[in-house]
């Protein structure tokens, strides 16, 4: 994955997250009693769990990229890596504040 592809993916994910949050806010404003239902509380818990899984996956991805980048820079791999097309890969840089899972409150 190139740096440009990763940046495009990150922008799309950020836009999707904002859209979902905005949509849920509109629904809660139109139907204030919905917050009291068990299904809505379950949805909130699932959203928080999803954010936790995304953070875990992002951390795993960055760890794998760090290991890969270190490996191709170490001897003797560095002698062959660039000749065979192995280049340093970009890290997934999340939006500021994304390192901690948000609490979902409507």
How would you characterize the overall build of this protein?
The chain is 65% helix and 0% strand. It is an all-alpha fold and 106 residues long. The chain has one domain. The longest helix has 36 residues.
List how many beta strands DSSP finds: 0
Oligomer: single chain
Percent helix range: 55-70%
Described by strand count, sense and barrel closure, the largest sheet is: none
Shape: elongated
Question: Care to give the gist of this entry?
Answer:
The mean pLDDT is 80.
Observed structural traits:
mainly alpha, 106 residues
Topology:
Blueprint (H helix, E strand, L loop, with lengths): L2 H28 L7 H36 L3 H5 L25
């Amino acid at each position: 994955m190139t740096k440009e592809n990763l940046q495009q993916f990150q922008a799309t994910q950020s836009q999707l997250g904002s859209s979902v949050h905005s949509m849920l806010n509109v629904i809660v404003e139109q139907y204030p009693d919905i917050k009291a239902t068990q299904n809505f509380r379950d949805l909130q818990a699932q959203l928080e769990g999803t954010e936790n899984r995304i953070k875990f996956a992002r951390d795993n991805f960055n760890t794998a990229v760090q290991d890969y980048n270190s490996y191709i820079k170490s001897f003797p791999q560095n002698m062959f890596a660039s000749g065979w097309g192995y280049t340093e890969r970009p890290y997934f840089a999340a939006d500021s504040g994304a390192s901690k899972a948000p609490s979902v409150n409507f």
